[in-house]
Amino acid sequence: MIKSQLMLTIWRRHTALCAHRDKGRDYLKCNCPLWADGYVNGKRTQRRSLGTSDTARARKKAVAMESDEKIYKPVEDAVTAFLANRRSEGLQETSIKKYDNTLDKLKEFCEAIEVDSLAEIDTEKLDRFRAGRGLAQITASKELELLRVFFGFCLDRNWIRENPAKKIRSPRNIKGNDVVPFTPGEVTAILQACEGIGKQSYERLRARAMVLTLRYTALRIGDVSMLARDRVTRDADRWRIFLRTEKSGKPVFLPIPPAMKAALDAVPPPLSNAESKYFFWNGTGKPKTHKAHIDRCLRAVFKASGVQKAHAHRFRHTLATELLGRGATFEDVADILGNSAAIVRRHYGKWSAARQTRIDDLMERVYMGTDYVVRDAAVVQ
Fold first, then answer.
1. Whether the Cβ atoms of residue 5 and residue 63 lie closer than 8 Å to each other
2. Which helix (H) or strand (E) holds 216?
3. pTM listed for this prediction
């Protein structure tokens, strides 16, 4: 039996197959799991597994558990609590998976360097972790954001004294993906490609309706694949689609063109469930499986269209660019896309011919409305 610097007692919990089982828990010269008991005034206050068979590592964990200077919270326990919290807040499973992938790698790294407690993870260790990942700059930047959120969660719960990820600077001069809007000709080619896919008219009508929905709503492909019929409603002489509910609790509706409404009406009920409340899903099976199926269908359409680098997310860029070119503010576009104005400015505020024309028109209104006339590159009064 080993006593740590304070009040924990370390002992072996012998397995049924251990040859030294009859020697009692104080016998440590075997590879059975190590546990710790804590006593106050002769009364046991805790008993827990140390998650190791190595005595040196067990001693270090016991000291960390008792220390007043460091808070003991196992890395694995913190990750489990964090992911449970994300799910309780209604985060999409795709977002949960991103956190899960990164934090799984962090757990593997901590295991490899024999780090058990969150308190042992400092900025230097995080630097080592990130250096070993071998990620592209833009991916590394996204992963750093995830780590900051995770350690911020732990800091709020007093499991650590500071957020070690906040001391790491984000990669600079990142060259983003050059996503360009679809041209009108490319949108036409994609719609035409819908007429030639699949073996049944149902698949072709569904593809056309999904493409038009992406085109005029900028919804993400997952939202389109799960589009419920009651999200499309009539408002006087026009049809609207419900996009989302803002944090203020107010719903955001978007008017849709007749062509999109006609395409949705033309889609037969999903196969095997004529009573389905969805346009493109029969309501059975896992949503994740259905979304993957819809993604494959649209990739087949994009491939058949011959449009280079075509993918569903480009429709968001297309609508955002058109709106900005027609005078919409970044806040207007943010309301439609469900982003912040800063995100819209960064990702969708690229220069376009339409925006240039609008600025030309604004400037003409300025100088044509004054007493100054521009003539032969000289200004006269």
1. yes
2. helix 201-217
3. 0.63
Burial of 251 (0-12, 13-18, 19+ CB in 10 A): exposed
pLDDT digits (tens, 9 = 90+) for 250-274: 788 999 999 999 999 999 988 778 8
The domains found in the chain, sorted by start residue, are 2-66 (no CATH), 75-167 (1.10.150.130), 184-312 (1.10.443.10), 313-381 (no CATH)
Where residue 216 falls among pLDDT bands split at 50, 70, 90? very high
> Which residue, among 105, 116, 118, has the nearest Cα to 164 in the 3D structure?
118
* Helix/strand/coil percent split, the chain, to 5: 50, 15, 35
β-strand partners of 300: none
* Paired residues of 241 in beta bridges: 232, 254
3-state secondary structure at position 116 = coil
**Do residues 160 and 119 make contact, with C-beta atoms less than 8 angstroms apart?**
yes
Partnered with residue 378 across adjacent β-strands are: 375
Cα-atom radius of gyration of the chain, to the nearest Å?
A: 30
Query: First-to-last CA distance in the chain?
Result: 99
Tokens of 55: 């005595």
Residue where the block lists tokens 């889609």: 267
Instruction: Please state, as a whole number, how many other Cβ atoms lie within 10 Å of the Cβ of residue 281.
Output: 20
